[in-house]
Structure formats: C-alpha cells, structure tokens
Structure to design on (292 residues):
C-alpha cells in the first residue's frame, strides 16, 4: 500500500510498455522490507524537463532513465558522477534534497553480463558497436576502462559515431578506437569479420520496431559473440539472424538485472536480493511467452 511515507522511484522514457523494471524493482523492495514503489512515467521530450523538475519536490529518492533520454537528461543534473561524465549519459539519478546527481550503471551491468556469458578475454577482443547513443557509450566506456583491445563504432548518423569515438579516445587513451562506415555494406561486413564481439545498441528490434534490424545478416560469423542491449523481445531480429548464422547470442536481460542491482545500491545503500530480481524477470518472461 502506498502511503504518505512511501519513497517513490520512477523510470522515465518513451515507450515504456515493454519495460521489465517496475516488477523487478518492486519485488526487490518488498523482499528488502523497504517502503518504496517503482513506477513508469512515459513522457515526451517536450515535457521531460517539466517531469524531472516536478520530481525534485516529491517524496522521490531518485529515478531511472531509459531510451531515448539518457543523454538529454544531462541538462537537468546538478552534479555528475565521474564515470557518468566520461560516458556522457545517465541512467540513474539520485535526489539529494532537490539536487540531482547522475550516475551510469548500464555499462557495468552490460559488461558484467557479457564477460560472464562470453568468456572473452577483453585484452584480446575487438568489438564492433552498432549504435552510438547512451547505451552504446556506457558499455563501450566500461569495456575501454576494463582493457578491451579495440572498439569500432558504426552508426546510421556518422556525426554521432564520430562524437562517441572522440569521447572514448579522450577518456580512455589506452584503448584503440576506430569508426566504420555504416552505409557501406562491404566495409561493414569486412570490419565485422575482424571482430569477436558484435553489439546492437540502436534500439531497433524493440517496440515499435519489432522485426527490424540495423544491419545485414551477412556480417555474422559462427565465431562471433553477439550481444543486443534489448531484452524485450527476448530475441530481436538481430539476435535471430545471428543465431541462425551459428553465433553465441545474448540479450539484455543480464544487463538490466546487473544495472538494477547497482541502482538500488545508489538509492537505498543496501545490497538487493539478486535471486528475487532474477525470479521476477523469469516470471515476466514466462507470462510473455504464454501470450504468444
């Protein structure tokens, strides 16, 4: 039951119908005995500032941020965590008496999941990152920080890809960084063949773009580990085509759980019950599969 004392936590984004976060977080809060409630706020870019500023004055401990506002939200922060500043994107905001501090937990959650599942040795790994938005920046920054050999960025908007590569080069000079022409299929295929890790961070494949994929299936080779930051649907067209090519695939489930654990630590300064969060996600997936 929500009372005047209930601590509010939100997720801001658009669309949010596909988000698993509310059920996962609320299950964790209940198990932890915390009087808190996590709920979605779907808003347009035009009204993002109004919503964010209104939350300052509510009983809100903070909020999560998802597509497409992980970069736009920077305009409303009073302070940035050092790593979030390097990433240039925020997915976690803590409200300190009306003052906002922005963090980024996406990268840690995503890379933890990739390392655990893939078995890749980062110092010997070259990654192709498709997309150059907030999720891409977070995961690439974490990969660079952990010593990946090389990151190659490609994106539909070349200027965005250039911006990300320049940012990575400045913040992590020890990491090799390059750019690939998204619109030249032959170059894209050749570049992918030199990589061990392929990642989709474009958002194509989730609602309202289910069934879409950002690249040709000709880029996939059986030796690739293929990651998609999307978790609903469980297998995007990108992953289905990679799987058909014999690749080892992974969706964003591990990433959402891992970053969610870190978010709860920021908001409540406690270690959340990982098993409870995993169970909540499994239940959502089971319910979703029943409806198909």
């Amino acid at each position: 039951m929500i009372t005047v004392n209930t601590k509010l936590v939100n997720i801001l984004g658009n669309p949010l119908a596909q988000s698993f976060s509310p059920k996962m977080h609320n299950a964790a809060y209940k198990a932890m005995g915390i009087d808190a409630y996590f709920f979605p706020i779907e808003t347009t870019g035009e009204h993002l500032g109004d919503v964010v500023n209104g939350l300052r004055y509510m009983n809100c401990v903070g909020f999560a941020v998802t597509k497409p506002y992980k970069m736009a939200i920077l305009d409303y922060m009073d302070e940035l965590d050092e790593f979030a500043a390097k990433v240039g994107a925020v997915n976690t905001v803590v409200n300190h008496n009306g003052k906002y501090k922005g963090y980024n937990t996406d990268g840690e959650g995503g890379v933890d999941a990739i390392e655990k599942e893939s078995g890749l040795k980062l110092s010997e790994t070259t990654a192709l990152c498709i997309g150059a938005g907030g999720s891409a920046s977070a995961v690439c920054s974490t990969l660079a920080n952990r010593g990946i050999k090389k990151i190659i960025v490609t994106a539909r908007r070349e200027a965005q890809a250039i911006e990300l590569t320049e940012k990575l080069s400045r913040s992590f000079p020890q990491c090799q960084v390059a750019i690939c022409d998204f619109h030249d299929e032959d170059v894209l295929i050749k570049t992918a063949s030199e990589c061990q890790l392929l990642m989709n961070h474009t958002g194509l494949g989730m609602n309202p773009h289910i069934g879409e994929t950002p690249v040709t299936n000709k880029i996939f080779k059986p030796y690739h580990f293929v990651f998609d930051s999307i978790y609903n649907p469980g297998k995007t067209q990108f992953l289905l085509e990679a799987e058909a090519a014999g690749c080892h695939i992974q969706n964003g489930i591990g990433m959402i759980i891992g970053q969610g654990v870190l978010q709860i630590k920021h908001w409540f300064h406690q270690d959340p019950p990982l098993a409870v969060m995993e169970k909540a996600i499994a239940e959502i997936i089971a319910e979703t599969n029943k409806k198909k």
